[in-house]
Specification:
Blueprint lengths: L2 H12 L2 E4 L6 E3 L1 H6 L5 H4 L5 E4 L2 E4 L9 H5 L5 E3 L7 E4 L3
Antiparallel strand pairs: 1-6, 2-5, 3-4
Bound molecules: iron/sulfur cluster (2 copies).
The site of one iron/sulfur cluster has 12 residues, from helix 2.
Length: 96
């Protein structure tokens, strides 16, 4: 399967979810640790592209999180503090 098709499948799946965003992030990164990180796995493993790098800093768009937990186990430095959003917030999966 080529990258273009993969991207389309992921985007199609993402169109079937909706979010209710909390004003507080449920994902916190340790900026001091991230600054020294050379591999930056978080930028590549997240299916929702929550992580990006802006001016050398890791930006976290937690509102788009699918709550899969992959980023937390992928960070080699343990720099991600991740918890489920408060009750009533976060992703809602639609099955129709
Ligand atoms: S992989 Fe971990 S330490 Fe590296 S930039 Fe991402 S969150 Fe920070
Ligand atoms: S839990 Fe999953 S969707 Fe949410 S930020 Fe981490 S990798 Fe991305």
């Amino acid at each position: 399967m080529n990258d273009k098709l993969n991207k389309r499948i992921i985007e199609d799946k993402l169109s079937h979810v909706k979010y209710k965003s909390d004003k507080n992030s449920h994902i916190i990164v340790d900026e001091m640790v991230c600054e020294k990180c050379t591999t930056k796995e978080c930028l590549y493993v997240c299916p929702a592209r929550v992580y990006s790098e802006v001016d050398g800093k890791i930006k976290v768009e937690y509102e788009n999180c699918l709550e899969c937990g992959v980023c937390k186990i992928s960070c080699p430095k343990g720099a991600i503090t991740w918890s489920y959003p408060e009750s009533g917030y976060g992703v809602v999966y639609k099955y129709s």
